[in-house]
Amino acid sequence: MKRQILLYGLIGGILIAALKWTEYRFLVMEHSIEIYGGLVAATFAVLGIWLGIKLTGKQQRVVIKEIPPPAGEPFLPDQRKREDLGITPREMETLELIAQGMSNREIAEKLFVSENTVKTHSSRVFDKLGAKRRTQAVQLGKEFGLLP
Amino acid sequence: MKRQILLYGLIGGILIAALKWTEYRFLVMEHSIEIYGGLVAATFAVLGIWLGIKLTGKQQRVVIKEIPPPAGEPFLPDQRKREDLGITPREMETLELIAQGMSNREIAEKLFVSENTVKTHSSRVFDKLGAKRRTQAVQLGKEFGLLP
DNA sequence: GCCAAAATCACCCAAAAGAATGACGACAAC
DNA sequence: GTTGTCGTCATTCTTTTGGGTGATTTTGGC
To answer: Comparing A5 with A22, which gets the higher pLDDT?
Structure first.
């Protein structure tokens, strides 16, 4: 960056010098002052733009780096796998709540059904997953991509 | 963006006009041409830098960097967190096996201890995690970074 | 309307899990 | 040598879970 600023100053100096040098040649020309001003303006404008881009271009890349980390997969319930295993939506729901550490009673309250119903659902889902315990069902559910 | 470019051109035009207008006043001055040139150069340089910054500042440089996190963490058991919670190694071991879906009996066999001992460990670990059920302990264990 | 799948609920019973308490030996720290 | 932690085990009792079976109701498709 320092190099670019120095370079910029240098070019400026050279231009000034060139300006002075050409002064004696083209000053006689009509409207040379306008051409002159335009030339200088254009040159410095280009240089300025270039410098501006350089000035922020590097910084920009650092900021960009933040994008990737939070990404990844938000996890979308594997509908296909669920159907492959013949697990019904209600059973799936039950399984999810089991995975959250809820008891049958709590699940029953949350789903507005009787505890017996929850038992039925869980039993069936265990069967379909090949699990003997709820903890195992959770473990298998994850392996099958049914649970996060 | 278009607005800025137009503005830029406008300012350029105004400067040229001003240049022409002042021409009749300061042309008589000695070295006015250098001052002039420098002034114009400085003005356009500043404008150029500003424009350059504006030009790239808002642009999202979508540099699609490779995503390290997904393939990244092999998961290292959080030793600190475990000790923070006052969970002993043996209790941790028990928790891990619980998370794998094993029953107390299976865990007992695997660890060569009695089932009662496993119960003691699990009870203690539940207590330390604030869990009431093993499924909940697993869930909390994950949240605490104790389990994968 | 009829059928099949899904969802619901009920009972019974056995197994597993969990809470509470007490106890004992090993071992490190002070 | 006392203290504290850890790991071990037992006993008793309550709660939760899970298996098995059957039944009723809803729902969606044909």
So the answer is: A22
Cα distances (Å, whole numbers) of residue B141 to A144, B99, B148 = 21, 9, 9
**Among all residues of chain A, which has the CA nearest to that of B130?**
A101
Q: What is the pLDDT of residues A99-128, one digit of tens each?
A: 999 999 999 999 999 999 999 999 999 999
Q: Which residues of B43-76 are buried (b: 16+ CB within 10 A; e: fewer)?
A: bbbebbbebbbbbbeeeeeeeeeeeeeeeeeeee
Cα gap B32→B50, rounded to integer Å: 27
CA–CA distance, B116 with B6 (Å, rounded to integer): 83
Chain C positions with any atom < 7 A from a protein CB: 5-11, 16-22
Among B39, B53, B129, most A C-beta atoms within 10 A, so best to mutate, is B53
Of A20, A38, A61, the CB nearest to B61: A61
Gap from A23 CA to chain B (nearest CA, Å): 8
Residues of B in contact with A15 (CB under 8 A): 37, 41
Q: How far is CA B48 from CA B37, B43, B59, B60, in A?
A: 16, 8, 17, 20
Kindly report, residue by residue over B39-93, the tens digit of the pLDDT.
555 555 555 545 555 555 545 444 544 444 455 566 666 788 999 999 999 999 9
Residue among B123, B143, B141 at smallest CA distance from B132: B123
Q: Which nucleotides in chain D have some atom under 7 angstroms from a protein Cβ? A: 5-11, 16-22
